Automatic annotation (TrEMBL):
GO terms for biological process: protein maturation. It is found in: Endoplasmic reticulum membrane. PANTHER family: LIPASE MATURATION FACTOR, LIPASE MATURATION FACTOR 2. Involved in the maturation of specific proteins in the endoplasmic reticulum. This is Lipase maturation factor. It comes from Steatornis caripensis (Oilbird). The keyword Transmembrane helix applies.
Length: 360
């Protein structure tokens, strides 16, 4: 905190929290012998990165509506954003020229990607998590093309890699194409599990589209050849919904983390050799305890989005958070809470003159 207000922005806090999680995800290995790339507890610590990404994106979408900013509620925020942001890029000029109906639809897409899609981070279906990954990356790339926010968007993309698995990354590197073709040919007719998975995936996409149309009154105007959109819910309805889902989201996170811990314990039991099995179990116990502790203290800043839910947390969690708050290992987030520059962009103009008559 030596930088005071000059280094107290959300991207600075995010860098601190992501840096601390990196200690758990990839700790320093002093003993190089028997060092392998894979460890049984990797899924537990890597889950914390996914939880950080969820808190960042979900809270960023929620605060835009809880702030009661008229531009976010009127879906007109992006008609100001590209012109009035701190450091626009050349791409921002072109984005500013887009028609108003497209700007409003872009705000709707932002809400969907930041509020609805993060729920898929914990989906049991792999393809839903991949869909969530590419949605988040698309949003961050568009922000990079239209605005300069230094490392923040790149760091968010790095966090989004927690949604991937080795098989998908292997396809990028061309390592699993042959095995995938062989498996896909042998998987016909499809099993009941794959059919249920596909049905659940299609149902999720259908609900996502239906929710978007209903909440934002999406309607195609064929005469004017544009897409009409407006917020179809009130502030009271939104805060009521937020109050109803905040604690269940905490429960969802707890169940997801518990599954990762149990899966890691099973992987420890499958390791050959009594000594190495005991060593892996010891590591699992240490990192699982650290993950549960990080998850617990993160609930305090996460529930800032609804203070009633924050007050329902166990008092011990508040005490744990107070003990480590100064280190900023967990933080609250909420990007672009209010759109700046609505009344015009303030500019600092420096002028100079040699003769005090002609100013440049």
């Amino acid at each position: 905190q030596v930088g005071q207000v000059f280094l107290y922005f959300q991207w600075d806090s995010l860098l601190l929290e992501a840096g601390f999680l990196a200690v758990l995800v990839a700790p320093l290995r002093l003993l190089k012998w028997r060092s392998t790339a894979w460890r049984a507890h990797d899924g537990v610590t890597f889950w914390l990165v996914r939880w950080l990404l969820f808190r960042l994106m979900f809270a960023s979408g929620v605060v835009k509506l809880t702030s009661r900013c008229p531009t976010w509620w009127g879906l007109t925020a992006l008609t100001y954003h590209y012109e009035t942001q701190c450091i626009p890029t050349p791409g921002a000029w072109f984005a500013h020229q887009l028609p108003v109906w497209f700007q409003k639809f872009s705000v709707v897409a932002t809400y969907v990607i930041e509020i609805a899609v993060p729920l898929l981070f914990f989906a049991p279906i792999r393809r839903l998590r991949l869909f969530a990954f590419y949605s988040q990356v698309l949003l961050q790339v568009l922000i990079i093309l239209t605005g300069n926010y230094n490392f923040f968007n790149m760091l968010t993309i790095v966090l989004a890699f927690s949604l991937l698995d080795e098989e998908h990354v292997g396809r990028w590197l061309g390592r699993s194409k042959r095995r995938h073709r062989r498996c896909s040919a042998a998987a016909w007719p499809p099993s009941l599990r794959s059919l249920l998975s596909a049905l659940l995936e299609l149902s999720t996409y259908g609900l996502l589209i239906y929710w978007t149309i209903q909440c934002f009154s999406l309607e195609i105007n064929w005469e004017k050849r544009l897409l009409d959109s407006k917020v179809a819910f009130t502030y009271h309805e939104f805060t009521t919904w937020l109050r109803a889902v905040t604690l269940p989201l905490v429960g969802l996170g707890f169940l997801s983390l518990s599954w990762e811990i149990i899966s890691a314990m099973y992987r420890c039991a499958c390791i050959r050799g009594c000594f190495w099995k005991l060593w892996a179990t010891l590591q699992w116990a240490v990192f699982a305890t650290a993950a549960v502790g990080m998850f617990a203290i993160s609930l305090v800043p996460f529930t800032y989005i609804d203070y009633e839910s924050n007050g329902k947390l166990w008092p011990g969690i508040h005490q744990m958070f107070s003990a480590v708050e100064r280190f900023q290992v967990v933080n609250s987030y909420g990007l672009f809470r209010r759109m700046t520059g609505v009344g015009g962009r303030p500019e600092v103009v420096l002028e100079g003159s040699y003769d005090k008559q002609t100013w440049t």
